[in-house]
Design goal:
alpha/beta, elongated, XdhC_Rossmann_dom, 11 helices, XdhC_CoxI, five-stranded antiparallel beta sheet, Xanthine dehydrogenase accessory factor, 385 residues, Rossmann fold, MoCofactor_Util/Proc, 3 domains, six-stranded parallel beta sheet
Length: 385
């Protein structure tokens, strides 16, 4: 079962009335192996779903999760190479991560069904959880949780705010700031005073944002497109394949795509832009090899902020395409965003190898990677988001 299936398993167990332990990465530093929001689920029968570190600390976390599942008392644990037992738990990669471990069941998280429904409907939602609480900014305060804030939740979905963190002021501040993270499609930690003071300290909240997946739009219903669609789906994109030729643009030829559309590429993309279904996370791959298809759609894509715009073709095709795009009014700054010929130099030849090359370039662009062998580099392996 893949990591992204952890929520589905959590919801399935919740609907069955079971309590489970959920470990969530809430903060990372340096070369941590997983980003904030990564989760690992541990059930009463010992089943494990998901991962928080790619295997580094799972064995230790498994035991902690079992203990939390039994006691019901949540725990915030930090792993890092500076810890005395870092090698023992396996975190030797150079990073530091904080993980919040909690027990979740129907009684303690009644809003989970609402979150699941929002995810199915494609409605952005966020779960705000108190992962650390003391009264550090209060007169005479001691580092305890007198208000029982630890583990309390606030849920944002649509125009509704459900639950409470224990204070109206804290709820209002957290809801406003969590909405900002949700709009940006980010998960992260917020810190406040115990009663919502924005410059205070004492309460740490983790915002888990659930947004619609980013889109990959592949233009050109060729064999390379089938491989690109498959690897795009593997990377978590919602994949659309579009081609104006109905004999080639069929669902049977593209089982890895979420949808196959018969339309002229530029007309389809304009419609998606007008409908607000394309954003700064969208990836566009133009594999058509035909100027009457690729020049209009590339000119349109390059005029809008997207995560990646690539086009397949030989260097001769690339030079001719750049000339046609300039004639179509594409500026030098816009043209500089075009990844063409598409992909990194891996030496591959088959459609599958080419798809790996394209995916590697998309990932490198996303995380500002160099595309060079790690053995030739020094410093952190993982780039900041």
């Amino acid at each position: 079962m893949r990591v992204r299936d952890a929520f589905d398993e959590l919801h399935r167990r919740w609907r069955a009335g079971e309590a489970v332990a959920l470990a969530t990465v809430v903060a990372t530093w340096r070369s941590a192996p997983q980003p904030p929001g990564a989760t690992m689920l541990v059930t009463a029968d010992g089943t494990v779903t998901g991962s928080v570190s790619g295997g580094c600390v799972e064995a230790d976390l498994y035991e902690r999760a079992r203990a939390v599942l039994g006691s019901g008392v949540p725990e915030l644990v930090r792993y890092g190479v500076s810890d005395d037992d870092a090698v023992n738990v396996g975190l030797t990669c150079g990073g530091v991560l904080e993980v919040f471990v909690e027990r979740i069941g129907p009684a303690g998280f009644p809003q989970l069904d609402t979150v699941a429904a929002a995810r199915r409907a494609g409605t952005p939602s966020a779960v705000v959880t108190c992962v650390a609480a003391d009264a550090g900014d209060q007169p005479g305060a001691v580092p305890v949780d007198p208000g029982g804030r630890l583990g309390r939740r606030l849920v944002l979905t649509g125009d509704r705010v459900l639950g409470s963190l224990g204070s109206e002021r804290l709820d209002a501040a957290a809801a406003a700031d969590a909405l900002g993270l949700l709009v940006a499609g980010r998960s992260g930690t917020l810190r406040y005073g115990y009663d919502g003071q924005r410059r205070g300290s004492g309460v740490s909240l983790f915002v888990a944002s659930y947004t619609t997946p980013p889109r990959m739009i592949v233009f050109g219903a060729i064999d390379f497109a089938a491989a690109v669609a498959h690897i795009g789906s593997f990377l978590g994109y919602r994949v659309t394949v579009c081609d104006a030729r109905p004999v080639f643009a069929t669902a049977r030829r593209f089982p890895g795509a979420d949808e196959v559309v018969v339309d002229w590429p530029h007309r389809y993309l304009q419609g998606q832009l007008d409908a607000g279904r394309v954003d700064g996370r969208t990836v566009v791959c133009v594999l058509t090899h035909d100027p009457k298809f690729d020049v209009p759609v590339l000119a349109l894509a390059l005029r809008h902020p997207m995560a990646y715009v690539g086009a397949m073709g030989s260097r001769r095709t690339h030079d001719e395409r750049r000339k046609r795009l300039r004639e179509a009014g594409v500026t030098p700054e816009q043209l500089a965003r075009l990844a063409s010929p598409i992909g990194l130099d891996l030496g591959g030849r088959t459609p599958e190898e080419t798809a790996v090359s394209v995916a590697a370039q998309i990932v490198a662009d996303r995380w500002r990677g160099s595309g060079r062998p790690l053995a030739e580099l020094a410093g952190p392996i993982h780039h900041p988001g």
